[in-house]
């Protein structure tokens, strides 16, 4: 009995070693995939925050010199469209440049014999997608820009409309700040206060300077 048990121990050790290696590889792959998803999500949050703040500041600036709701809404729509297009084109150009660089490196490695033909398909499948990145950037910006637009859309009273925009933007800033801090593993409270204060300052500066310029023209 002892000799039989001893005969099986090496095989069991080998199997345990293989299982441990598989688990280690699976854990590494999980962390890599999670990191990639977190980076994309964080980029989407930052894009939405950009759309939120730039559109809200634009609307507040127009609201400083025009009290009618139409001017404020139209400025927000223009800001949404222009910002989303700008984000999409910028991301498209940037990611296409990265795509071309990485593709050229793959071709050089193939020509030099450092990469086999069977590996090319896998390497190309991991290349960044310019159009997907452009669409994601435009969409995230538009989502953020919709917040101040929807807050002001059905309010005719000038002061209440401004207050509604500030309130809606403040809530959204807190949500985006929390998401950004969570994904970046940063202190949540500091991030919330920093994002909220920055948003208020941006809207106040835009409102104040536009008011000043409008009164002097």
TrEMBL record:
Catalytic activity field: Fe(2+)(in) = Fe(2+)(out)
Leader sequence residues: none
InterPro entries assigned to the protein according to its UniProt record, in alphabetical order: Ccc1_fam (IPR008217)
Cited Pfam families: VIT1
Coiled coil, from the record: none
Compartment list: Vacuole membrane
Keyword Ion transport in record: yes
Topological relation to the membrane, as annotated: Multi-pass membrane protein
Record-annotated membrane-spanning stretches: 72-90, 133-155, 162-181, 193-214
Assigned GO CC terms: vacuolar membrane
GO BP, sorted A to Z: intracellular manganese ion homeostasis
Function (record text): Vacuolar Fe(2+) uptake transporter.
Name the record gives this protein: Vacuolar iron transporter
